[in-house]
Amino acid sequence: MLSAAGDAAGGGILLLDGPWGCGRTTLLTHCVGRAAESGVRTLVAACSPAERDVPFGVLTQLVQGVKAGPQAASVPGDVTSVAQRVLSTTDAGEADNDLLSRRLYGVLLELAGQRPLMIAVDDIRHADLPSPRCLSQLVRRLPATRMVVVLTDDRNVRACSLPLRAEALRSPGLHRITVAPLDPRTVGHLVVEQSGAGVDHDKRRWFHEATGGNPVLLRALLADCETAGEVLAQGYGQAFLGCLHRTGPTPLAVVRGLAVLTDAATVPALEHLAGADIEPTGQALAAMTSAGLLRDGTFRRSAARLAVLDDLPAPMREDLHRRAARLLHGAGLPAPVVARHLVRAGRMPDPWVDEVLLTGAFAEDEPRVAIELLNHTLEHRTEAGDRARIRVRLLELESRIDPVAASVRLGPLLAAAGSGDLDVPARAVLVRQLLWRGRTDEAGELLSGLRGRTDSPVLRDLELWLAATFPALSRKTVAGGTGVRVETRSTAVLAELLGRGCGADVVAKAERVLREPLSGRCASGPGPSGLPALMTLIYADRLGAASFWCDQLLTRAESRGLPVVQASVLAAKAEILTRKGEFDEAATTARTALTLPAPGSWGAFVGLPLGGLVLALTRTGRYEEASRYVGRTVPPAVFDTLAGLHHLYGRGHFLLATDRVQAALADFLRCGELLTGWALAGAAPVPWRTAAAEAWLRLGDRDQARRLVLDQVARGGADGDRARAQSLRLLAQTRSAKRRHQLLGEAVGLLEDAGDDFELARALRDLGASHHALGDDRRARRLARRARQLAKSCGAKPFLDELGAGFDDPGEPARPDGIRSLTGSERRVASLAAAGYTNREIALKLYVTPSTVEQHLTRAFRKLSVKRREELPGELCADLLLRGSR
């Protein structure tokens, strides 16, 4: 191109076309630099939206380049004089374009006569109106000159430079280079080059999705990751703003409207906020999308939206929210959507504002947003009843973040209840919140008043909640349980399990509840509305399904940033892990559940994470650490809750393991006394009978142990398969060798299905001893070896020490240490993978997510020192067949 400008063939034009931030300016700068190195004289002008209204701004930059550039010394004096006159003419604001064009053409032609000349104009779409008209006349004459004109533009966006763009596109000397966002493969190469070879495919794909391949955004995001050590977004947001401010007033106004409207953004709504006298909004959105700045008309990352909002002057931001509120209210959008704008719009005189704020605050599903709306509404309500309702709702929501801090609201609300300013729903909420904090006397007084005055659906919901969580204050007979709210059905299914025992219908009901969209509203204490249904699956020994749904609830809790809700789901997860025999992970999870919220947040429900932690630590032999948690003071009201049973059960096993058998027996028997006192004859949350039987055996009282075990066996499957299997294992100790063998075989089968590796190891040990007594030492050795492998995978060091050498023949080859190091979950996943199942098929079989399967498989590969499924030991397939045969 440059050589063409210098020979007899005449000049030409180079158009660098493409969206913002994709390298047009960089390429133009490169062209100018190469031209200067080749001896070509260069004149450069850069356009910007801020200078669009300056007449002849582009021409002025070019002429100043002639007059004062680094090559000015080589310009003949007469040319310099003409350039000075052109500059003074433009400064004077003369509007004779033809005269200016002739003068400018003469100057440039004189310069090009000396040596080839390049004129480079960046972002021509932002040029002032007169300059492109003059340049378009120059473009028409290029073939007869030794000049090259280089322009950058985006042809997909309307601009005032249309005549120049048209002249450029039909010029016979046109050369066009189109730039575009980087493709995923190129982004991946750049990410690896910047971050190292350890960046996996998913991370490379994430970088492309987060930046749309826009080089400016990509560089900023890589810098964020490199400087902060994690993916932060400060540089990304500023890079987005830099691109945005170069786009011009239309896209800037549209994106500001998009940042304000968020999910309510539509093209008509954006047109309304951006102004009706500018180019079509849809075109601006398409241009931003083609540049990679947006994705399908939305922000790729929240950091971009926040940067745009922070960049807005406060008065403009308030005005946009006022206009958005009026627009959305007039369009009939839900009150919470409109209310989000009202709280940021300042005072508005519209008569509908106060009512929409109140309605929206109570209907808002996102707790932190609802808290903001409620606090704003509280400032403008004067009615005592409304203010009391608002404070009750604030108590509910704030308790999911910091219950201790939220407790300051209890005093005024109790006073409001005494003066009759609280309605029945508000009183029911207050009862729950008081019980959560262990204030049973005050809660009992309120509850008595409710029961004496009404039999409303609200009271029936409260009774269900009491039966499923705080049975000490529950009525012994609870009717109903099919309410319209997810939370009501969730607590009802748990109450049914506790009252009637395990059954396929109860499990099916629990899963149906968990499949429904879960409400963010808080009414049942420290947890999401699906938590009682999740505990139903746990108590029914459906640990695979419980693990799956626990992950779903945990993902939702983490995304909302509500520590108490998250901690309650983590406590349930720790219980699942303990029942599966994954004690190290259970201890870590329970410890996180205890420490995640502010101290004191658990209140009367602390027994669930505390009992799970003590039991997990006891099983792994960490008695010193467990003793610190056993000695922790808990509120007396803990033992009025189901969570208190978990505390007694965990503490009892710690006492049993540390040879304080009488104290352990007392804790186990107290579990039974509480359940009897609460008239809960269904599934027991903890298998207290078998635990107490073990303690009786340790004390040498076989009759008492047998009585409890027979009671448990007589309950059939009411308490789930684990409790039945434990009772069969203990019952076998009182039977003949042949009968013992049958009982233990049934126990092993039940525990295989239940997925409890620790109890399975204990049953295998006893079954091995039974085979040894019958003279089948080969089978006995194999069972003992497997029991030892399971105990090791569980981290159950005390039980592993108790096993000793057992019946294992040291002459037989042991399984590789890698297989022994697998946890129960990792082993199950690896066995299925070795058998040829895909990740999705494994997830369906084990009731977990594909992501969980992938994580377990990754850890198994690392422990087994393999890289592919094909390299998994064949012994895992044999292990799977052995499990299936049982």
The average pLDDT score comes to: 84
**Assembly state of the chains shown:** single chain
Number of helices: 47
| Biggest beta-sheet profile | 5 strands, parallel
CATH homologous superfamily caption of one domain: P-loop containing nucleotide triphosphate hydrolases
Q: Which segments are poorly predicted (pLDDT under 50) over 5 or more consecutive residues?
A: 1-8, 91-95, 478-482, 519-524, 807-816
CATH-derived architecture of one domain:
3-Layer(aba) Sandwich
Number of strand elements = 7
Structural class: mainly alpha
The CATH topology of one domain is Rossmann fold
**Dominant shape:** elongated
CATH hierarchy class name of one domain: Alpha Beta
Sheet with the most strands: spatial strand order: 2-3-4-1-5
For the record, give the distance between the C-alpha atoms at the N and C termini, rounded to a whole number.
80 Å
Jot down its keywords.
886 residues, mainly alpha, Rossmann fold, Arc Repressor Mutant, subunit A, 5-stranded parallel sheet, two-stranded antiparallel ribbon, 47 helices, 7 strands, disordered N terminus, LuxR C-terminal-related transcriptional regulator, ATP-binding, TPR-like_helical_dom_sf
